[in-house]
Amino acid sequence: MLVDTFGRTATDLRVSLTDRCNLRCTYCMPAEGLPWLPKAELLTDDEIVRLVGVAVERLGVDEVRFTGGEPLVRPGVVDLVARVAALEPRPRISLTTNGIGLARLAPGLKAAGLDRVNVSLDTLDDAVFRKLTRRDRFADVVDGLAAAAGAGLTPVKVNSVLMRGINDAEAPHLLRWCLERGYELRFIEQMPLDAQHGWDRAEMITADEILAALEREFTLTPEGEQVRGAAPAETWLVDGGPGRVGVIASVTRPFCGACDRVRLTADGQVRTCLFAREESDLRAAVRSGAGDAELAERWRTAMLGKKRAAGIGEPDFVQPDRPMSAIGG
Ligand code: SAM
Ligand code: SF4
Question: What sequence ranges are listed for the domain Radical SAM core (predicted)?
């Protein structure tokens, strides 16, 4: 098992398939620049399946989430899902995507074994979408969401990050829109992970602000800690249910004590936390001929470096060098 020195066990593996993306969300990437990882440094499909296999078959990982960058821009994504679904014991498989390309890929992903998707959508206003993502792809995301639901990738979850003065007034509208379509909305507090280091805590929309805005239009009933478990979203039933809304308050209500996650970057580095400043190189081990037992041992050792908490609020907090798009959100 992947146990750290604070007694937490990682069972939820986030695998970044690429650092590339077809959007340029302002809270994630700069308008231009940001060099991509060289292709030779990226894990091949076979290397990804091998490492995920070690995690699932030897280290107790039971949930695999593909992310990025934008995971759907990786050509082999459907095949990767199929190969991971063939592992024993079969892990649950999910995907975090900006939704572009999902209209085309959703049925194939479902058939390959994908269980669930999270689609990121921060606004329902085409013009705001263009401003926030710097690309004109709003309709593609909306179509992608509908295709995911149509393909049975349920529950379809929607991730939204609110930015002050840009889309923060949209919180109730986003919730109503998602409820009408059967999507489960989760707001994510903006974190200091943008490539351009522009995050400002004072500018961030907090969980309390989000909840206050929603409560002006809806009755929210907390679902309680038992539902939260190791899942970072605190959830509320909306107007008595069954619709619900979640808030991932990574900054104002961190959930590090219950963290069950570990990450593998597209270039084969194990990261024990989004905010880790150290990584462990499994790509070098794979490419130098390490056997599965050695890879598992290296991975277990990497977990011993996992910190007690991300420490975003602490005076000595330093943002990691890698941006979110290169870590895998
Ligand atoms: N491209 C895919 C997407 O956007 O869903 C997957 C990768 S993206 C890095 C994963 C999630 O992280 C998205 O929901 C995105 O909104 C969120 N995200 C990106 N930068 C963030 C930040 N600085 N703070 C909070 N969430 C962020
Ligand atoms: Fe791309 Fe996702 Fe980052 Fe937006 S949040 S720029 S969609 S990786």
Answer: 5-231
